[in-house]
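Researcher: Here's a chain I'd like modeled. Treat it as a single chain, no partners, no ligands.
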Amino acid sequence: MNFGQVLTAMVTPFDQKGEIDFNATRTLVNHLISNGTDGLVIGGTTGESPTLTSDEKIEFYRYVVKVTDGRVPVIAGTGSNNTRASISLTTQVESTGVDAVMLVAPYYNKPSQEGLFQHFKAIADSTSLPVMLYNIPGRSVVNMSPETIVRLSKVPNIVSVKESSGDLDAVTEIISRTSNEFTVYSGDDGMTLPILSIGGTGVVSVASHIIGNEMKQMVHSYYDGDVQFASSMHRKLLPIMKALFAAPSPSPVKAALNMKGVYVGDVRLPMVPLSAEEKNELQKKLPDLNIEAVG
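Model: Modeled as a single isolated chain. Structure tokens:
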């Protein structure tokens, strides 16, 4: 299933008391849709999902679906390292109207590949919603092997994977061995163009909060056959992508949004806001972010 080419892994706006800010959420959703976003991934890593309660997630997901109003697909994070809890949340989230769910590889438990397969299959079997897998070994410790992802792609409603392993050989194998209907998204902004070049569909992006139109321009240039221009875009955007990960995410992207007047508040503990020095370093990049076009 193709959810679009540039999906934004959306931050969760908080107010000064650290509660979900629904007015800011409306503004952010409209900003993203107006600036290159083809779909929203909510309640993921960038959305600070570990700090949200299940009740908060359900209320937040329902609100985002309402604001989006069918303009773009909404994919909601419902995975955790607890299979039963993931099944419970996934089945509850069906009532919010989201278009699909995203399931992260179980962290901390360190399951085997068979354990990973059974975990994802059990959750997928519990829902009628399409499922996007999320492989991010840098955070979950475990890496989903290409063989496991290929096996899971045969489960009827597992339709996509967000690949954040950084292993192009593994991504190539996944694309080669899955059907054309199974979509593979880069989970790393800097790997977008390389993954497109081996047959990937697009990116689940953090940087698109800030450079969404430019990310979309790069992707469209590649698909239109202007590889040279797409490559130039990649080189020019890469420093901005890196700046947004100079400190643990999503602190930098939230700070950048606030600097640009799209107020989303701070992060929840155990994440911390950028220091004054870190903000100053990020601020130096902001003039480069306010670009109409690149190239």
